[in-house]
Amino acid sequence: MSVKKTVRNALVVAAAATILSSTAAAQSLRINDGASVAISTSPGFTYAVNGTASVLNVTTDGYVMCANIGSTLLTPSSLLAQHERWAMPIANDIRNIVYTGSSLTVNQGVAGFSPETSLGCQIRGPEGEIASPFSGFGDHLFRDSWEDAVQLAHLVNWVPVDRFSWSQPDWTLVPNDSCNWNMDPDAPEVAEDSVCAAVAGVRPVSTASTNDARYGDRAPTMWTATTTSNFIYLARIDARFGPQSGAPNSYFPVVSSHRPDDDQASSVVVGIRDSYDANYLAPNGTYCLLRQLPAVLNDNVCAGPEVFYSESLTARQNNPKGFLEEKVTLDAGFNPAKSMYVAVVRQKLSGGSTPSACQPNSAIATILDPGVARNENGDEFIGDDVVFGFRGTDSFEWMGCNP
């Protein structure tokens, strides 16, 4: 194709079916006001239009997890982000696409921020690295310029105590509640007084830990287990609307049997989505929400006494890949904050192949309503919005993996 091509106003392209594709080198993708991620040289991207509907299919070197969150009017233009071996949710509400030959932008603003839509995305690099742990809607321009290259620090919205070192981190010292803090001596880098949303890795407490066994120790990756038929992964979810008003770990459900979006009134919605290695895992399984950390992680984790909601992940028409699609709703007056664990028991693919060393099998992301993120400066620290799951003690190389 030519060096320069521009596609604008995806909704008003002629009714006849058309396809635009590219495999040119040195291309990048940018969605809304987020960080850029490299587009894979092959297969690159395709943009297909059929009538009023269109699909942008783009394969990236990194991980792009998107969802439609909130009540903004949706358009029939869809984004299907892909990564080698992986299955990722499709999302719509694309308002415009611009391709210059080296940069592909989605929902690019003419001046200032992008147009307000329901399309929210979390982006990570090929090794799960975070371009910036701070949202583009916060006031952290100069703080970014002073950040060091220690990626582990990007996972936690925390000012470490004096005895802590990211070069040899003691994760038992890291706060296990991402949205509610012991303010002395622990303190977040960003207070997130508007909206806080986070997903975190966690492990059962170690023998040297002083943490409560109900909540575990913080970890850089998800707690996982591999059984004969399934791969199981578990993460902690925290969300808060408005300034902190409670102690750490004080917002887990006690006796409620309802799922987290059953509230009568909701002012803020936080979506929960997963992605997975589709060469290793299948679009079938079960997920559940738990009020405390289970004692063991196995095939029966969604049948334990800690579970307060469970649901099948069986592939269906509107979710053929069997993605986790859950949400947390918050109301400033009645439900200002919530915490829970989410466990996914996903079947292994018959005849599938395991990924190479240091590569993940799964990921879970929290995605805040984009309108709230913008208008309220919500979720200002985004480094804790994605967590990956690996087999055993595996991890990305910057976390210490030795292939």
Strand and helix map with partners:
Blueprint: E1 18-22, E2 28-31, E3 36-38, E4 45-50, E5 53-59, E6 63-68, E7 77-82, E8 86-87, E9 90-92, E10 97-99, E11 103-106, E12 119-124, H1 141-145, E13 195-203, E14 217-219, E15 223-226, E16 230-241, E17 268-277, E18 281-290, E19 307-312, E20 325-330, E21 337-348, E22 362-368, H2 370-375, E23 386-389
Parallel strand pairs: 2-11, 5-7
Antiparallel strand pairs: 1-4, 2-3, 4-5, 6-12, 7-9, 8-17, 10-11, 13-14, 13-16, 15-16, 16-21, 17-20, 17-22, 18-19, 18-21, 22-23
Tell me what you see in this structure.
The protein has 403 residues and is an all-beta fold. The chain has two domains: 115 residues, no CATH class; 259 residues, no CATH class. Helices cover 3% and strands 34% of the residues. It contains two helices and 23 strands. The strands form five sheets. Strands 13, 14, 15, 16, 18, 19 and 21 form a seven-stranded antiparallel sheet that branches. A hairpin with a 3-residue loop joins strand 10 and strand 11. The N terminus is likely disordered.
Order of helices and strands: EEEEEEEEEEEEHEEEEEEEEEEHE
Instruction: Determine the N-to-C terminus distance.
Output: 39 Å
Number of E-type strands: 23
Radius of gyration, in angstroms, nearest whole number: 21 Å
Helix content: under 10%
Main sheet record: 7 strands, antiparallel
Uncertain residue segments: 1-16
Overall SS class: mainly beta
Strand coverage percent: 25-35%
